[in-house]
Write a structure and sequence with these properties.
The chain has 355 residues and is of the alpha/beta class. Helices cover 46% and strands 17% of the residues. Helix 2 crosses helix 10 and helix 4 runs parallel beside helix 12.
Length: 355
């Protein structure tokens, strides 16, 4: 008789034999070891990743910033730099320390920043001297104003004002040009800065007039001689000239920027007064060392631009003869390149030999 499997047991799995106590202990031991290894691996990974994670999460800035100013204490550039440093200290949460570094027409300051670590903690407040004029007046400039820096923003434009002695029988730019053409070589202009000299040379070239150049060590003694009649014309900084124009000691005819100056809103620009496209100005701008990371440059640009667009801050600048004129980093790069070329060409055209 053949044995058959009961129908109710056809799909019932065969029960596995119970493991021995030794086998249970071995399995438990292996599992514990695996858990320990996995935990150790994760812990080691966490330790090794921590510094990188911390570095990535550390927000700029996490220490104080040096703001190196290419001129001495006092004056519009220094005042603007210190006010900006105060504002940035508040918004960035780290102190921004101003360090004046005059000398060598700004070369010392520019070199210092160009050679600094490109981490955003050293920035330069440069001018038209460091980033235009030096290229025109120096034979061997020890830095490149374009390639050795990351532009942050242009901070302000300092227009010059064409001023004449009261004995010159003119009341506007067109009359002055006509008078100069009628008296070639008889009008002497003073210049105690590179911008004053080249602005006057640009005026000569655009207006087709012949003026006599009289060099000075600074514009202050040139202004004294303008008032006394020893020279007849001076294209000087608004901050220097305005009090003397307001008092009636000299006459102000036009400003050298494309837009009217906030400090002299009633005075036309050269462009408006008869010389289309005329512009030669002083400027103040912020730079970081070349290869400073773009996010840091962008953050500095945004913070400084916000300050420059503040009405109270812009009014403070205007009182010093500087008009707030923020830019993007790329716009400042293009501006420096254009101005450097302009200044070199003007100096060459005037026969000025680099020294």
């Amino acid at each position: 008789m053949t044995a058959t499997t009961p129908p109710c047991l056809e799909n019932t799995p065969t029960r596995a034999p119970r493991p021995t106590q030794a086998l249970v202990l071995r399995l438990a031991s292996r599992r514990a070891a695996a858990i320990w290894i996995a935990s150790a691996t994760l812990g080691a990974a966490g330790i090794s990743a921590a510094p990188g994670a911390q570095a990535q999460s550390a927000a700029f800035p996490n220490k104080s910033i040096r703001m190196i100013v290419a001129v001495g204490a006092g004056g519009a550039t220094d005042t603007l730099s210190r006010r900006m440093a105060d504002r940035l200290t508040q918004t960035l949460g780290q102190s921004v320390v101003v360090e004046n570094m005059p000398g060598g027409s700004g070369v010392i300051a520019a070199q210092t920043v160009a050679r600094a670590s490109p981490d955003g903690y050293t920035i330069l407040i440069g001018t038209n001297t460091t980033h235009a004029g030096n290229s025109a007046f120096m034979k061997a400039l020890p830095y490149d104003p374009v390639t050795d820096f990351e532009p942050i923003t242009r901070m302000g434009i300092a227009a010059l004002v064409l001023s004449v002695n009261n004995s010159v029988p003119v009341s506007n730019l067109r009359e002055f040009i006509a008078y100069a053409r009628a008296n070639p070589g008889k009008i002497a202009f003073g210049s105690g800065t590179g911008s004053a000299r080249l602005a006057s040379e640009l005026l000569k070239a655009r207006a087709g007039i012949d003026l006599l150049s009289v060099p000075y060590k600074s514009n202050a003694p040139a202004l004294t001689d303008l008032r006394g009649g020893q020279i007849q014309m001076l294209l000087g900084d608004i901050a220097l000239m305005l009090p003397h124009i307001q008092s009636g000691a000299v006459k102000g005819l036009a400003v050298s920027s494309l837009q009217r100056s906030a400090a002299m809103p009633q005075t036309p620009t050269m462009d408006e007064a008869g010389l289309p496209g005329y512009q030669l100005v002083g400027f103040i701008a912020a730079f970081a060392p070349a290869k400073t990371p773009e996010p840091i440059v962008r953050q500095l640009n945004e913070e400084m631009t916000r300050v420059l667009r503040d009405r109270d801050f812009a009014d403070m600048m205007a009182k010093g003869g500087v008009d707030a004129a923020p830019t993007t980093p790329q716009q400042l790069r293009e501006w420096v390149s254009s101005e450097t070329h302009k200044w070199i060409e003007l100096a060459r055209g005037a026969g000025i030999q680099p020294e």
